[in-house]
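Appendix B. Worked example

We walk through a single record from start to finish. Start with the input: the chain for ABC transporter ATP-binding protein, Inhella crocodyli, length 363.
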Amino acid sequence: MLLALEDVGLHYRQRGQAVEAVRGVSFGLARGDIGVLIGPSGCGKTSLLRAIAGLEPLSSGRLRVGGERMADAEAGLHRAPETRRIGMVFQDFALFPHLSVRANVAFGLAKLADKEQAERVEQMLRLVGLEALGKRMPHQLSGGQQQRVALARALAPAPDLLLLDEPFSSLDVDLREELSQELRAILKADGTTALFVTHDQAEAFALGDRVGVMHQGRLVQWDEAYTVYHRPATRFVADFIGHGVFTPAQLEMGPDGPQLRTPLGVLRDATECPLPDAYPGGRCEVLLRADDVVHDDHAPVQARIERKVFRGAEFLYTLRLADGTQVVAAVPSHHDHHVGEWIGVRAQVDHVVTFAPLPPAAV
Ligand SMILES: Nc1ncnc2c1ncn2[C@@H]1O[C@H](COP(=O)(O)OP(=O)(O)OP(=O)(O)O)[C@@H](O)[C@H]1O
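Next comes the structure step. The output line below is what the pipeline stores for this chain.
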């Protein structure tokens, strides 16, 4: 693993009191991989990134980069940020306004001879597609171009690890999408190992080989994006990633193995579920995401449209079944039904995910 965290915790001191921002975080990121940390505001993403960079001391745990110990709270070890060979791109990606694009990119290359420095700068500008703009000043660039200069500047010293904290947050949505694709290609072309922070799920999935979901200072899941979506480790992850609802269900043994009785019919492909005796009486809740609920005129179950949101290619319908169960469904937008109309729906779930029902007090 290029980056390895073991049981990392971080406290801030506020008016003499320790405020816990990160606790018990362990994960590894392989060389050349892109990891993305995602989670709601205040869950500790930026704090964790700052701890990896060495800008905050660890209050517990250990941290290695390229096999080298960078921090160990118990041993009192804390390597200074500038010795960690870690590059950083932050939200405001502040370029030096009085320096040209070329000089900005050359900033971290003072140790190189002039010729090597110039070569590396040109190489980086080519990588980010700005070779024609080397002489410009930052204010003569668009936001997206400035962001690419910031990236070239961070990549130029060939850091072992690049940390990026919401690098696209100040850009508009179209540009964000375009740049995140571009950035992934650039990082892969350069073989850079990178760890991002975002709270945009689409960005996390588009960029990350690995996605980590944080909640209240903890890393609750660290997996491939596909697994985070289809096999969420906790209710929180299931709820945070994608549109979906938890629906009461009954897990039972059917003729072909475990099956799940739901208000939308029986789900037979439940082999990845726990066995029925995992839940008292087999009673559980199943995650039904918007893409698991299919509109089908011939389906025996009818649902009334309570709300609809147009999302271009599809509508997101919020539906209520006759028994009161609420589900959501992503339906191709040529099926334009009215609020109040009843439509046929069925469940088509590739990966059945169940959780124990919440205790009554928590509902
Ligand atoms: N310098 C600080 N001093 C005290 N508490 C802090 C400090 N920085 C952050 N915190 C607290 O630590 C917790 C984690 O904050 P952090 O900025 O890491 O979250 P985040 O997930 O990056 O949030 P966002 O997505 O809003 O940027 C929050 O409760 C925050 O109020």
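Two observations about the output. The longest strand covers residues 17-29. The longest helix spans residues 173-190.
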